[in-house]
Amino acid sequence: MRDHRELGRELDLFDTDSLIGAGLPYWLPDGAVVRHALEEYVRTAERRAGYQHVYSPVLGKRELYELSGHWAHYRDDMFPAMDVGGEQFVLRPSLCPHHAVIYRSRPRSYRQLPLRMAELGGMYRAELSGVLGGLTRVRAIQLNDAHVFCTPEQLADEVRAALAMIRRAYDALGISPARYRLSLPGPGGKYVAAPELWRRSTALLTEVLEHAGLPYEAAEGEAAFYGPKIDVQVTDAAGRESTLSTVQVDFHQPERFDLRYIGADGAKHRPVMIHRSVIGSVERAVAQLIEEHGGAFPAWLAPTQLVLLPVTEAESPYAESLARDGRARGLRVEVAEPGRGSLGARIRQARLVPYQGVLGAREAADAQVSARLRDGRRLPPLPAAEALARIQALVDAHSTRLWDDDRAGPTATDREE
Ligand SMILES: [Zn+2]
Question: Which PROSITE patterns match (predicted)?
Answer without folding.
Answer: AA_TRNA_LIGASE_II
